[in-house]
Write the structure tokens for this entry.
Amino acid sequence: NRFLLERRPHSAQKARMRKTVEQIAGDTQGISFAFPVYVFDGEGYAPTAYLQAALHGGELPGVVAIDALMPMLRKAEQQGRIRGKITIVPSANPIARAQYAAGELMGRFHFGTQTNFNRDFPLLSSPDDNPEYLLDQTTVDQRLKARLVALSMGHDIVLDLHCDDESLAYLYVPSVLWPFMQDCAAA
């Protein structure tokens, strides 16, 4: 958190958290999917961060982590300590959340395309590309992935709070952020 927060007097507060609701058109007329996005605009230069959770719909540990983080961010915002922009998508996949079969949530693969929601994200030719052109994709899962890519663009740190009950924990850290991310990696 040394990247994102700095101690400043309470009077320095200016920006407030913004909440928007993203709408993704479904593959069937009259069906759409929505998910909230929270943005904390920092008051100065600092690295920016994007966090998303529940890409497979039922991945609750990331949602719980964000639920615990949000009060801390709101408090830091009230104290004027947020420096860099922070974008939070606590439940990134309303499509997966809506996929039930025999009473069980089946959020790993899109029912229509059989594609894993964590695969086949649109590729950009450079970090400077504007991903908005990707939003006119043919299937709802592709439109969702394009929107998530667009929301994450321009952030220095992008975290997908992805989880599995049988995998090892790991963290991708660009060399320019090492050793500053050493505390995050240790956690």
